[in-house]
Design brief:
The protein has 7 helices and 14 strands. It is of the alpha/beta class.
Length: 247
């Protein structure tokens, strides 16, 4: 069992709070790599970190908001113009494929129908169903509470003997307990410090449930300006752009 790296190429919210890029998390082992969410600024994050986007074979999407999947049109087009040949596998909630095609047509009209030298394969994730990406890499989805016109998921990723959970965007739900239980790392949104924002999780509420999560380590992400202002008061780890964690 080798090391697994988690690198926050983007750790911000939808509105660039703190100058942070939108959500984009690279999970990488010796044999596999994937992006967890691909916000609109993700291509910038990849290239800023010196990562060739064509090496990304898998993208997992938690829900259909632009700061979580809006980078896919740019990732696909960059692959087309840079000579990508390896297939790109994208998995997420129902409606993801149609949403990506619609976004491509809004951003670059006619681009969704162009012929490419690589395949873009979409797979629908479903509540509680484990999907194998490779023999030692699989993902399980847990439906959470975040309105976006389609199911929103927390994701539990098992990769080369390590387990990483990610909350996506959600207000508190016991589904987070199931997703995080026994994991090596739980990446959890903490949008605000104390203020209750519909469909989002605040730090105060999260800490009330911290003992129930059963994860070995927790890192907070997707923080708004209020939460960022309270970082000196936070008692757990917090993410920032280009933070790398080795498990």
């Amino acid at each position: 069992m080798g090391n697994v790296s988690i690198r926050f190429l983007g750790s911000g919210d939808a509105f660039g709070s703190g100058g942070r890029l939108q959500t984009c998390i690279l999970v990488e082992s010796d044999r596999h790599s994937c992006l967890v969410d691909c916000g609109a600024s993700s291509l910038i994050g990849l290239k800023r970190a010196g990562i060739d986007p064509n090496t990304i074979s898998t993208v997992l999407i938690s829900h259909l908001h632009g700061d979580h999947y809006g980078g896919l049109p740019f990732l696909i087009l960059d692959g087309q113009f840079s000579g990508r040949s390896d297939k790109l596998w994208i998995a997420g909630p129902p409606g993801l494929k149609a949403s990506v095609i619609e976004a491509m047509e809004v951003f670059f009209r006619g681009s969704s129908g162009l012929r490419r030298k690589f395949e873009v394969l979409f797979q629908v994730l479903s509540e509680g169903i484990q999907v194998s990406v490779a023999p030692s890499f699989c993902v399980t989805s847990y439906e959470v509470l975040h309105a976006c016109g389609a199911p929103s998921y927390a994701l539990r990723i098992e990769i080369d003997g390590r387990t990483v959970a990610y909350s996506g965007d959600t207000e508190w739900t016991d589904r987070l307990i199931a997703a995080a239980s026994g994991t090596d790392l739980f990446i959890c949104e903490s949008y605000s410090y104390e203020k209750r924002v519909p469909f989002h999780l605040d730090y105060s509420t999260l800490m009330e449930h911290r003992s129930e999560l059963g994860c070995r380590r927790i890192v907070l992400t997707h923080m708004n300006s209020d939460m960022l202002a309270h970082l000196p008061d936070v008692e757990v780890e917090t993410a920032h752009d280009d933070l790398e964690i080795i498990l």
